[in-house]
Amino acid sequence: xxxxxxxxxxxxxxxxxxxxxxxxxxxxxxxxxxxxxxxxxxxxxxxxxxxxxxxxxxxxxxxxxxxxxxxxxxxxxxxxxxxxxxxxxxxxxxxxxxxxxxxxxxxxxxxxxxxxxxxxxxxxxxxxxxxxxxxxxxxxxxxxx
Length: 145
Description:
The chain is α+β, with helices and mostly antiparallel strands. The chain has five helices and nine strands, in the order βααββββββαββαα.
């Protein structure tokens, strides 16, 4: 994995979010918040971000690029900017249920378990963001990618 990482930036900062009523009605964009609260890593195209069966110690918010989600070498989902991956392990503590592979150069923000719990407790839009991501994945399970 180390050869796949282009750059790694750690940012320690708090961020105060102001959300308008119009923004509440549209998709919740967590990229800025995730970028400022977590570590940010860029993966080259073709690199594995995590593999099915790995311990799920963090989740990722895609800042830019495209990630393919695979189960047994079959693409089951394609995720892009502002989408979350790896969040199910944050919720249930189980191992990864799929493999995430960079389809193109991808920058992700890493949210570890402590930051995840903090964000669920203190950032109401974050809980909605994760629930929306889960709902979209469940609804898309019957679709072929």
